[in-house]
Amino acid sequence: MLKPERMSKLFVLGPKSKLEKVVSKLQELKVAHIIEHKKDEFDLCAPLKSFDKVSSLLVQIRSIMSHLNISSANPKPIEFNFNKLEKNINEIREEVNKVIDETKNTEDEISLLSNQKEALKQMALLNLSPEYFQKSNYIKSYFGYINDPNIKEKLENITDRFEIKAVQHNKRTLAALFVDSKLSDQFDKILADASFSDIDISIANELKGAPNELIEKISKKQEKLETNLKIQNNKLKKLSDKHFRHLIDAERFLSVEAEKAQAPLSFGSTRETFFMRCYLPEADMEKVKNEIAKVAGNKLHIVEEPLGEEEEIPVKLNNPRYIKEFEFFTNLYNLPKYNEFDPTFLMAFTFPLFFGFMLGDVGYGLVTFALFYWLKKKFPVGKNFFNILMAASVSAILFGFIYGEVFGYEPWHGLIIRTHSANTLMLISIIAGVVQVNFGLILGFISEYKHHGFLKAAYEKLSWILLQISAVALYASYANIINLPVFAGYTLLALSIFMLYKGEGYMGLMEIPTILTHIVSYARLMAVGLASVFIAVMVNDFATFLFHKGILFIPLALIALIIGHLFNIALGILSPSLHSIRLHYVEFFTKFYKGGGIEYLPFGAEKQKSIL
Amino acid sequence: MVVEIGSGLLGVGAGLAIGLGAIGTGLAQQQAIAAVFGGIVEDPKQFGKGLFFIVLPETLVIFGLVIAIMLMGRM
């Protein structure tokens, strides 16, 4: 329970003729974490024959799904006949592509028309038809904004072989200019000086007629096209509804097939044989061995290989059902290494304990419990997380009974009255800190002892415990609590500092104060709890004050109660859970836990979705 | 209400302990939160680590509270 599941390593060698059968079986068994073969004197294995076909079908089906706006949700594990599926997908693709092409054409046409309309609107300002701007060998036309009121005079200085029409629009001068094309070079220069900005109207060049009439015509055409577009989109929607289920299931089937077909890419091969290595849980070892041997007609060479000390063994956490939910926190932080302690088990008790200690209110606990129950039903993806918080809510209810608190009121006399015993709460918090921090150190000691021997473990972990003992001893002798000579405390202190230096070097010495801050940090258990209870009391006092003001104020008092307590509950979910997690991650884990293990990803198993 | 100067100063000290701690926490969290959210946008898996980097500086104000409670006990 405190360690990840024990793993074994398997080496499998066999003739290539059996490759597909072995891969299929492994996929079906869903336990083998395949180790990727790096190309050395042995080449990588080629994918299964079906690979090309499957992957091209998969690409097609995904493109269809993206066109139809289908995202794969809850697929059913259905087997399909390959050839039938291929034919079927081709049919659907043609059907979909036809509509998509139509839609695209319509959209293009609509955008062309709206561009033409824009150009015509500009021409309409000058009351010029598009015919005037048609390309000609003798006349060059300009259309755009000019920033020079004296342009006409300037042009007249050169020639009179031009025609200009201008109008004020948006505080600028919109002008159309027609010139003898022989003089166009000179005109270009003058216009450039007048900061002429060209408007591209070539899109409307082909049209004929008065601009306003044309605009009207185009608008009508556009309307018609918009209705067409709507019809086409409806068609797409219908197609999507019709094929939705089928596509999702087929996509899943093909993904699984593709996974299978490309699995051999992680294998090694010779001309006639393939070989592969995989990790699997010790418990499944015999079963897997037998099954794949059987499926390959006993033509395989299967060997169990020993696990190396430095090997990156995948980690499969191994916890009973209730505690399994808390693996969420372990995953969130970092998976443990294969040889490390799995802290899930410890967190499963202390997280709800701390949470309850902080929130500690029967009313709030019931509300949060109901809320998380509802959220769990609503968002099954976050099941684990909400289960954890439901457990934490139960703990809050229990602590509520101890404190005698219901929504900040005190209907009965609790064991600890929080509003009047900050010091007691602080003492309890600090004791919790001392216990958890030292427990962490002991765990760290055990794991160091196993891997690096007693001395290193003592230097690195026992030194911290000794440091605390020496501090207590010194305090006790100076305060005359017990009759202990002062030098005993100092000797212990010196010894622990020496050990720390041996174990962790100068960094260790620099970190000496952290042991104090880490323990005092548990005072947050008291602090967050007090904040919560005082806000509740304040809300209640305010509401009581309003109640006594008279009958008119009663609705106001009720609103104050509801808003105040909702606010406090929101804080009461966020703050205690964050601080409880933090105490584990920062103060507790750092004493024994490094993490960084790689995840156990059995071949064939579907990846679990996570809330985050 | 007559308050002795000594207890008055203790009260001021308690207030300063919390207030300055809170300012420190605020300054630290302001930067931490901005950085963490930047990180989460790039890689949502960093959420877990980011979370406790955000609450890390809250220790300051809690220490302030501890000191304040200790001072109040002497009043």
Give an overview of the whole structure.
Chain A is α+β, with helices and mostly antiparallel strands and 612 residues long. Chain A has three domains: 1-45 and 267-316, Alpha-Beta Plaits (2-Layer Sandwich); 110-221, 2-Layer Sandwich (Alpha-Beta Plaits); 321-591, no CATH class. Chain A has helices at 19-29, 51-67, 82-126, 151-158, 184-193, 211-262, 285-295, 321-324, 327-333, 344-359, 362-378, 383-403, 422-478, 486-510, 512-520, 524-547, 554-588, and strands spanning 7-15, 33-35, 43-44, 139-146, 162-169, 172-180, 197-198, 268-269, 273-281, 301-305. In chain A, strands 1, 2, 3, 8, 9 and 10 form a six-stranded antiparallel β-sheet that branches. In chain A, strands 5-6-4-7 form a four-stranded antiparallel β-sheet, sandwiched between helices. In chain A, strand 5 and strand 6 (172-180) form a beta hairpin. In chain A, helix 3 (82-126) runs antiparallel to helix 6 (211-262) and helix 10 (344-359) crosses helix 12 (383-403). The radius of gyration of chain A is 39 Å and the shape is extended. With 75 residues, chain B is mainly alpha-helical. Chain B has a domain at 24-74. Chain B has three helices and no strands. The radius of gyration of chain B is 18 Å and the shape is rod-shaped.
